[in-house]
Amino acid sequence: MGETPNHLSPIFVNNTELFPDSKNIIQIPYSSFSNVTATAINTTSVAGYDWTKPFPGRAIDGHEAHLYVTRDVPLSDDIVQNSTTTLSALTFSIPGSMTNSSTDLPLKMDPSWYICRHIFISTKERARTFAVEGKGCDFLETSCRLDLVNSLTKRWGSKDGTTMCSSLALDPIPSSCSDTFGLSRQDVLAFNSTTLADPNEGPLVSSDRLMEWTWRMGTGYYDPHNPRSYEIAANRTYLIATVWGYSREVDEKDAQTPQVSLSCLSAWSRHDSVLPASPLTSTTAHAAPEPSSTSSSAASRNRAGLAQKLVAAAVAVTAISLLNM
Known about the structure:
Elements (H helix, E strand, L loop, with lengths): L7 E5 L12 E5 L10 E6 L2 E2 L9 E2 L3 E11 L9 E10 L5 E2 L4 E2 L6 E10 L2 H8 L9 H12 L33 E6 H5 L17 E3 L9 H8 L2 E10 L12 E8 L26 H18 L8 H4 L3
């Protein structure tokens, strides 16, 4: 799934207001960037739990989130000619004690667990400053934190019959976060023991390796070597809210409000330009010719195939499935 360089990889074209929308998704050859070294790499720890034991388990160190940024990734000419984008990729790794050392695959997850990862994006300067200085998400106001955690847990198991997640893709961050974080809708990656046991899907949610179906976002369409493309990527801050919840298979007496971990990542450095926070629009910004609608539609349909795989047995939540592609 992540090791076939001739395959196509779906990416979000840019950080628009409705970025998980199918119109913001294209596919590019995995071979065009699979061997390219990332320009910037950032890692942050994630407070987490040992899901190999029954829910609620015990706290364990070693969960991490990783951000990779790669410059000048070429786009297929059938999408847009002579254009590149800067790709940002998110991966998630788990403690070594939760991994099979001989196969490098995650150990079996107890079926009582259900994990939801919510991804929000900010272009606020204070957000990225805190992230790169190692202060994580401390820039968020207390009211924002409380409202965000509440939105991600209060409807656990009741928001949608196909998932346990309390918030779904395209749901907005609470309004109390607008001053410190800005407007952002979310993408959601969710999984349970069935997902983790799959040899192809399991590594996508438990390994720092970059793979074909890794979560990726570009910066629109730019002429090759245009510095603006990288500046846009570097000025983003990713808030990853991980909800450590229970599945429908949990013993009723053990069900309790899930815990939430907030982690923030940015690729910005002191050497990079500072861009003002940009208002999000419903269209994809670009600095090169737009791709044809035919190519975009084809990419969307192919992305839908990926979504269908990832939501098998209703264990993953993506914007694609919500949009009924």
